[in-house]
Amino acid sequence: MPYQHILVPIDDSPIAYAAMEHAQDIAQAFDAQITLVSVVAIDPFVGVDFYKVAPSITDHIFEAEKNAEGRLQNLKQTLEQRGFVVNTRIIREVPPAIGIVTIADEVNADLIIMGSHGRSGIKKFILGSVAQEVLTQSRLPVLIVK
Fold first, then answer.
1. For 98-112, how does the pLDDT look when each residue is reduced to its tens digit (9 = 90+)?
2. Alpha carbons 43 and 72: distance in angstroms, whole number
3. Strand 33-40 relative to strand 111-115: parallel, antiparallel, unpaired?
4. Range of the domain at 122
5. pTM reported for the whole predicted model
């Protein structure tokens, strides 16, 4: 089945950019559009009330969102110069995997391509694996790049 719309979650890690390279190849082969998405997540171990009383944390979140928007716009511009149709989205205030799956549905994506940091053992248990959660929750095919 040819893919028409590819969703690519992006953060500032090298593995996310590796996933982006795979997405470009597949998008080019199928003449598909690309939606780039970044997650601006609050710390799941800290309650919302803490953010109301801690302006420095709130500033950190705004800075993270500004950085994510800048990263997405830079990638969008690069991809558009290469002839791709590109959209961007920011996910806010939801767990990353839920946000990724929700955005995939909203934009009618038919493939998700994402990097996996390859955490294992206790790190995976404590931090969870966004890629694993997306695999579990998505009804779409998911290509995981390691």
1. 999 999 999 999 999
2. 22
3. unpaired
4. 5-145
5. 0.84
